[in-house]
Amino acid sequence: MSFQNPVFIPGPTNMPEALRKACDMPTIDHRSPLFGQILHPAREGVRKILKSDSAEIFIFPSTGTGGWETALTNTLSAGDKVLAARNGMFSHRWIDMCQRHGLKVEVVETPWGEGLPADRYEEILTADTGHEIKVVLATHNETATGVKSDIAAVRRALDAAGHPALLFVDGVSSIASMDFRFDEWGVDVAVTGSQKGFMLPAGLAIVGFSAKAMQATGTGTLPRTFFDVHDMAKGYANNAYPYTPAVGLLNGLNDACAMLLGEGLDNVFARHHRIAEGVRAAVRAWGLDLCARSPEVYSDTVSAIRTPEGFNATDIVTLAAEKYGVAYGTGLGEVAGKVFRIGHLGSLTDVMALSGIATAEMVMADLGLDIQLGSGVAAAQDVYRSPQPTHSRAAA
Ligand SMILES: Cc1ncc(COP(=O)(O)O)c(C=O)c1O
Questions:
Q1: Quick one: which of 154, 140, 11 has its CA closest to 88?
Q2: Looking at the chain, which residues constitute the CATH 3.90.1150.10 domain(s)?
Q3: Ligand 1 centroid to residue 262 C-alpha, Å
Q4: CA–CA separation, 218 vs 230, rounded Å?
């Protein structure tokens, strides 16, 4: 079996060869200054990518889900109230985690395909005069629906209400691919993982804590052991972890940050935007719709594409894998069978994206959908042929 084809799942992403090699390194003593030379620059690189001067960066051997748990268990106590909107599978899972930890969640049910309702957040926060709500959850990029939300607007909602709740942002499928402004947006905890924008294998939960979130670690009483940020901070002070770190992945993370910062964050974001625009042009040419309801919420990392009524979108994913050896994302939860997803993040170029668009066309035509072969490719080519800076080829 050949693994030559790129993947078009919304993470784990395609990996640059240099990062694969960076993860594959000889064993070193993980309690030594040598380890510190990997760990500390990796944390500093993440801080820069979050656009923060002062966030405390913690990196656990885990995944994004462990990052959610780190955020909650280090700052909250059972019975605390959390405000969250459910607009897709990942916001749903974070809400579910809160409930399993005994937190009370005020859930704003939001149509899948729409962004976070900042206005509704403001009304609820304004009405919460007793400041019972301790945390507001915000999923920056709903990977299930291909919807990005306006985190600055959520911050404005908190400020307009004069509410002191902490702002926790899931940036698992946005950070390092789409603009993220930890300090400017007043984010208190940001969560991501290694396998999306950082272009690495899964295995690291990456979180940033603001000073205010660090303060909350002193009052929250939820049980925490593996994800205790204080144990982790003590370890870091001695060039170590409280347990055995994933050294190779951290080495990869260090190099990934250098690669992204070397390309330039604005260039990384522009590359993702252009590639996404090509995919969206293809979707229009196919006569299909995105799950995302309007251009201001279009995600630059993943497009969830609605298929015609009565057609099982999962068939596209299955046939693409079986016949062409190409991976797309299936629909999840409420949109299972109704959408398929093209992931377009991480180590990707225009030319790689064209192969994903072309294969999707072949599969849809094979399955009898009324798709003109070449229509989506031509529409994307128009986007990709427009003048583009030479950095567009940097990250593959
Ligand atoms: C937005 C979002 N949040 C959280 C997660 C969970 O992350 P993980 O699968 O790394 O635990 C994902 C995974 O795809 C995601 O896309």
A1: 140
A2: 264-395
A3: 26
A4: 10
The response to whether residue 69 sits with its C-beta less than 6 Å from ligand 1 reads no
Whether the CB-CB separation of 68 and 170 falls below 8 Å is answered with yes
Check pocket membership of 13 for ligand 1, CB cut-off 6 A. Answer: no
CA distance 346 to 348: 6
Please answer whether residues 33 and 239 qualify as being in contact, where contact means their C-beta atoms are separated by less than 8 angstroms: yes
Name which of 243, 248, 91, 56 is nearest 169 in CA terms. 91
Q: Which of 172, 192, 341 gets mutated to test ligand 1 (max ligand atoms within 8 A of its CB)?
A: 172
Q: Which CATH class is domain 264-395?
A: alpha beta
DSSP result, 5-49: SPPBSSSS----HHHHHHHS-----SSSHHHHHHHHHHHHHHHHH
pLDDT tens-digit readout, 310-335? 999 999 999 999 999 999 999 999 99
Q: Kindly report, residue by residue over 148-204, the tens digit of the pLDDT.
A: 999 999 999 999 999 999 999 999 999 999 999 999 999 999 999 999 999 999 999
Indicate if the pLDDT at residue 240 is higher than 50.
yes
- Would you say the CB of residue 11 lies under 6 angstroms from ligand 1? yes
Our answer on whether the CB atom of 67 is closer than 6 Å to any ligand 1 atom is: no
The third-level CATH classification (topology) of the domain covering 17-262 is: Aspartate Aminotransferase; domain 2 (3.40.640)
The pTM for the full model equals 0.97
Q: Which ranges in the chain are annotated with CATH 3.40.640.10? A: 17-262
341 labeled binding residue: yes
